[in-house]
Amino acid sequence: MDILPMAHHLMALAFLMLLLGSFISPFSDFESSDEPSNICNYERLSEVKRECNSFLSSASKLKLDIEKAYRMSYALSFRYGDWVQEAGTSPLMPFEDDMGKNFSDSGSLLKLVSFSIMDVDFSHMNKDEVRVCGYLSIGLTRNRTLSNHADDWSPWFWKEPGISELIIPFEGLYIETEGERLMCFLGTSVSPFSEGFSDLLELPMTYSSDFYSQSPLLQDDRVMLVLRYPQTFSLTSRVIHGEMRNLNQNSNPKYFDKVYISSQLGYYSNYQFVSEKLILEACDPYPCHDGLIDGGIIKDLQFCKFFLGLSAEMFDIVGSSGCDGTEEHCYNLGPFVLGNEVKRTNGIQDKFRIMMNNPHCIPGDKLSKLSSAKASAVFRVVSSQENLFIAEHRSGLSGMTLSAEGTWNFSSRLLCMVGCVGLAETGSDGCNSQICLYFPISLSITQRSIFVGTISSINNTDSHNLLSFRKVLRPPDVLNKYYDYSSSCLSYKYSKIESANILLKGNENFNLVTFMKKSFLKYPRVEDTNNITSLSQLSDELSFDTFGLPIPLLNAYSPKVCVTMEILSLGSLFGRHWSFRDFSRKEASKILTNSDSTKRGQLLNISAHFTLSGESYVHISVLYLEGLYNPLLGEAFLIGCRDIPLSLGPMNITSLESRMDCLIEAKVEYSSKTTRWLINPTAKISITSQRDVEDTLYFSPISIQTFLIPYGDNLKEFIFRQNFEESFRMLVLSASIACILGQLFFMEKKVDAVPFISLTMLGVQALGYVLPLVTDGAIFFKWKKFQYSDNLLDSGNPMWLQVLDCTLKFLSLTAFVLTLQLCQKVTKARLKLCTSPPINLRQNPSDKLVFLSSWTVHIVGFVAVHFIHLKKTADGIISTHHKLSEWVTDIDEYMGLVQDFFLLPQIISNVLWQTQVKPLRELYYIGLTLLRLLVRAYDCIRDPVFNPYLHKGDNNRSSVFFSKSEGIIIMTILVLLAVTVHVQQGNFNKSLVK
Questions:
Q1: Which tops the pLDDT comparison, 948 or 750?
Q2: 964-993 and 883-900 are packed helices; what angle lies between their axes, rounded to 10 degrees?
Q3: Pick from 279, 482, 236, 277: which is nearest to 375 by CA?
Q4: Alpha helices (H) along 521-557
Q5: 285: cis peptide before it, omega within 30°?
Q6: pLDDT in tens, 427-468
Q7: Taking a C-beta distance cutoff of 8 angstroms, is the pair 108, 144 a contact?
Q8: Which of 79, 355, 829, 852 is least surrounded by Cβ atoms within 10 Å, i.e. has the fewest?
């Protein structure tokens, strides 16, 4: 009896072991995949030793400790170095350019090379060498990235317009000499110029990539690569040199001219600050001064943390000392070596920027007294057209790079560095640049830079003009990358409040409109100006990033411009306040002194960063604004400053402030929050220059109306609109029922006029009441929305909406039944008229010709509407998914027009029948016309509902079918139809009197 339970236990144990084995096997497979034998076979070591003998003979004993061995594969790899080819007749690879030859794009043609170590075979390491393998990615590219890994251990080449890339796997040996580290490799490549090679005995290799299929190419295993690395990583010892050459004869079709490679050591190498002598020559005595920045310099800062955070930042080039736009040195960029083609270009500072990468920083020696820090970085001149991702990861050194090292001194509160142009491997040669970096502690309208630098000459031997550059702080930077720095170190200093107050008073004019706005409309505001959380929310509400149109050209086909306004400070708040973060002592510095705002009551000090895109606004593309915001009227009165481009030539310096044009006034008007349930928020921007028309810096007034400004949490307005529209439909249906009942009572008194009521007209109305019941569609008007807002329809009180929906359907059914009663009375009256016609009857009323005439008019109208819809779809104004939906949408929308033009059949019947009576009561046709006008006017005024989290701005199409101007035309036709019926019935009365 005990055997059976034991068997069950054994079976369970076997099952668990099987399950455990299934989990272990994938991990064991994964681990085995890292074995060197699976990456490199090292089958060509004998060839490597033979071809690399001249290098291997100078090898010394390897000194690899654990840390160095661990870092070795990372430290010896590099990405996006530079390469050049020896002048000759055998290029490395073909290249097909994808753009015309003009300077604006010429700076982005790059020769890049990357090398990755795939394996270091320490298991077979000798005393003076170790086996290594890796692959080289080398290519020509115009702003497109190269591969950062090989799909397999095979060579391949691919090209398409704008990029050519060659992947070559290598295996070889790593050695060390007294002065450098060296790797010598042999690799197997493919010849990019051997497509269609006719000699099949050469065994061409066929391959393809995911991007571009290639013809068969010839293998070439006679490629040699030598890479030389410095033993130490310092200011003047950082360059990686490489040489790749083909070992075939020059006559061989696989041969290519020698290729030279350059890069530098990076993150995984330990930087050594050993250039004290060079730094002493550049920075002793300390030449930098703090007069460049208004507001002082940082006194307490975790300098290294902030400095390392500047990696990959792009700095704008401000200009050159003494450059007035005409001098020869205006076409240079300080110490950077530019090509002649670049130097011949106008406005060179506007076409390049400076990027800082590969930063290193260590604090002072005494941890208890960190009074200084040592810092190093590479400054690179980058074309404005260059891919930023490529620029960030480039490691090549050339005349467009400046390697720098220096010290941050607490007592001087500045960073002074010595800079070496290009490779700079011969001591002080080429290290003739002094770099001073400034970090302001306060911002103003003329000082919005978080980082300012200058590059100047140390001596006159190889002097160059002074170059200034900066990093302008934008409000999003305060929220993200520089939040800690901004909250602990920065503040804002207002200087244009009095000028803005004068502008505000000049625009004050009390009238009925102003009184109505203050009394009944509510604009973005805060109840407590000292509540930083409320101020932060108001800053978000006043900021916008949307599209707009010049006000004189407000139509859908005008050129759109991108308008951005980012609030930097508001009232007593600088930047933003995150409620989920601790409001600590560091963040308290964000509170600004704002006594002036308190005196002015509701007015708030405000500063902002304003940008405007478009060819017509290049001269005013960036404005730094400061002024007053009036929350009672939703208006901001601002003074603006802009940078002066050097391309404008000599300027009247006395009219500028800190080399900026500040004679600019701006006004921003925000829409009311009270009407947001009906009209989406927008803003109107007006910018004017206060200079004389003859002044070089004068520009014409600019007025722009923005598109929708998405704001968060619009659920309240959304629900209110839902409830309002349901109630509005109920009101219109109730009034329509009253008009129909009035016509029924009128027909009881005017029996002789009943046969002359058009059945086609009544049928159109009955169709309008019954169709929503059959199709479960909207009554009178549809829900107007943008794309991506469908999920908001689930909000609100579903029970309440169901009650409203049932009530609407009941009222619609009632209107339909009453309209059928009208039809029934007309039919009976016509039958009676046929049996005993009156003597003065000119024509027996029949709707056949009326029906044909009405629908002929509507068919022509539908064709016109369909073509208008097709044009709007092509222009991207409205959205459709397929052709069938276009027809369905057109028919559905035109049925609404048929309902609006319900009087058209009655007008036609009056003309055809030469009616001598008054068939319709004024309450009926005027009342129904007014209701249709009310519905159409509401549909014309209301804006589409949007989803604030998924709204795509200019690319987000709406369900709006008829534009506002088209809606006005429809309403005009409605009025004309009612007037025509009124005139016809008035003439009938006159003829009866006669």
A1: 750
A2: 30
A3: 279
A4: 532-542
A5: yes
A6: 556 788 999 988 888 899 999 998 889 999 888 766 788 888
A7: no
A8: 852
